[in-house]
Amino acid sequence: MKNVYYPLAGMNYIIDNLSQILKNKKPEEREAIIIYLSAQVNSYPHVGTLINFTSAFAIAKQLKETYKVPVRIRVELLESVTGEEQIIDGTKYYKNLVNVKDDNGMTICDKYLPYFKEILNRLSSRDGIEYEILFFYDYQKDFLVRRSLLEVMDNANILGDVLNPKDGSIRLRFECPKCGLVDKHNRNLRTVYKSKEKIVLENECPIHGKHLLTVTEDNDEKFDMNVPLRYLVKAMYLIKSDAKNNTLSVIVDGGDWSGMWPLRVYMEPLLKLGYREPVNVIYTPTILDWSGSKLSKRMYVGNQAYREYMKEGLINYSEFYNQYGEEGFERLYNEVNLWVSDPKLFIRDYTIEYIDMVLRGEAHN
């Protein structure tokens, strides 16, 4: 029987309940608490996604019990991310998930979405917490989102080197309206017009030529953002939305996005823009492979990744129940809820070997 240790670190010294992370925000005085999850619908969910979602529902239950206000979960599913890439004349282009279809006319998003919904429906039914799905192209239509984006673009001169030290560019992208190709690195981007209320950009498709994007607070032309820009705009949107609606928004994100990332992408830009309130984030445990690397989707690390030592059900939710059964889901659900009940169990990372041990029901101290 293996021993597991939980040395105190960081936040463990100042809280004895996860809900206390938000205590200074007066949750009991808000109309509601809204927990935000996000995921790219570009492959099967893996066990890290399952743990992140289960953590969010467990946290929602705890906040509801502690502060006695309505709590709901909003799940942002990103259909705007890369579905396929190609290089044309030395420039990298991509098409997003809703513009890439298989021989049967099914998009990548449509293929994998049912697995995400299955997890969410199981957790919602079990925990009594309502959730809603919001796709990126619907989310970006909100005038507060577009107002936040315009604010960032108007201050590109002071935010460029913060968000993108590589070249100082702020990567607001948009597809060719005829074929869906997107210039990934904005090599051909040109600003036609920019003010606090409106921005007009021009890019060039290698097949169909030049095309424009216009963004105002109230129009609905769709756009894509790279990860740092998307994170910052979301933080600004949540701060504005909470102020307007007297809600308390909380991002629940994987622990691999903690550390230097929020300091650089959330805090420093918000300070430069004059914001006095930070965004609220709770980071869930990162699931690590044997070498200490974050468990990742195979599309990012290669199709053969993990196959030499890991069960397929850990990386591919469509195989999860074949290998671990309902008992596996029950064991993992109970384990994650145990973590959430005690910060010293929650504010740390776990290896995939540990998770496999839990799923198999192997005893440990």
Summarize the structure.
This protein has 365 residues and is of the alpha/beta class. The chain is built from twelve helices and 15 strands. 38% of the residues lie in helices and 21% in strands.
What does this protein structure show overall?
This protein has 365 residues and is α/β, with parallel strands linked by helices. 38% of the residues lie in helices and 21% in strands. It is built from 12 helices and 15 strands. The protein has helices at 47-67, 108-127, 136-139, 143-154, 156-163, 227-245, 260-272, 298-301, 312-315, 320-341, 343-346, 352-360; strands spanning 32-40, 71-78, 82-88, 91-96, 131-135, 172-173, 182-183, 190-194, 199-205, 209-215, 224-225, 247-254, 280-284, 287-288, 350-351. A 5-stranded parallel beta sheet has the order 5-2-1-12-13, with helices on both faces. A 3-stranded antiparallel beta sheet has the order 3-4-7, with no helix packed on it. Strand 12, helix 7 (260-272) and strand 13 form a beta-alpha-beta unit. The longest helix is centred in the C-terminal third of the chain and has 22 residues, at 320-341. The radius of gyration is 21 Å and the shape is globular. The protein starts with 31 loop residues before the first strand and ends in a 5-residue tail after the last helix. The mean pLDDT is 94.
